[in-house]
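Cross-check.
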Amino acid sequence: MGSPAQPSAAQRERHPRCQYGSSAPARRTCSSTASTASTAMAPQYRVVMVRHGESEWNLQNLFCGWYDAKLSDIGREEAYASAKMLQEAGLEFDVCHTSLLSRANDTLDVILREIGQPNLPVYKSWRLNERHYGALTGFNKLQTAQKYGAEQVQIWRRSYDIPPPPIEEDHKYYSAIVNNPKFTQDLSKDEIPRTESLKTTLQRVIPYWEDVIAPQIRQGKRVLIVTHGTSLRGLVKHVQQMSDEVIVKLNLPNAIPFYYDLDENLQTVGPLRFLADEETVRREMEKVASIGK
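Predicted model, tokenized:
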């Protein structure tokens, strides 16, 4: 198969269009509103993605990254709500992908039980982990802004290619991360990152998409991905061919499923679509954007 056609400069700079609603049109049929990236091609496939529910560290406004925080009570409720949205949309799946981190795994577990598909194959990979926040791990976001300045912290959080300072061996959570048996099954301690930007996160996420997820989609499998904000933004950037400048402005809300319809070349047919009304999505996006302010 040849390389996908490259978007025009105007397409690359356009902010991603989104659509909203509680139902999802069936695969292999064209919605009358699906009319952006690949208008000449009919949708052949669909991929559904969900950001995990709120974690205990999200609740405390702490930088989390590769630390294995659990879901909060609110996060578990969000997972149940996510499952309900998928049920109401009539979506079912053949295979699932998630990270090695509990907050994503537990969100997926709730979803699969609630939609009545608890025994689906689940692939777990470190490549879908959240970005590593380095030395910021475990620190309160407001306190970090007071220490380093809000502008510098915002650069670390939202820039495309500027990572936070790396985590050092004397850091409180260094050992919990580098000695986590979930990670050391696949990575040596030296291979576990010490810090990451969106760019370096994308560099590990995209090979997983190309080598594992994309072939399954081309086989006709209905794929569900439940993972983290930064790794999902990496996937969105790649799938929708967004520019660096556009992707850093995208905020994905917790536990609201969204999906892409794709043509035979896995190019997007129409915009990213959320399974919630526009006001709910906007409110939850603003909540994500305001964290740490």
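Residues 1-16, 26-39 have pLDDT under 50 and may be disordered. The beta strands are 18-19, 45-51, 95-98, 122-124, 223-227, 258-262, 272-274. Passed to J.P. for a second look.
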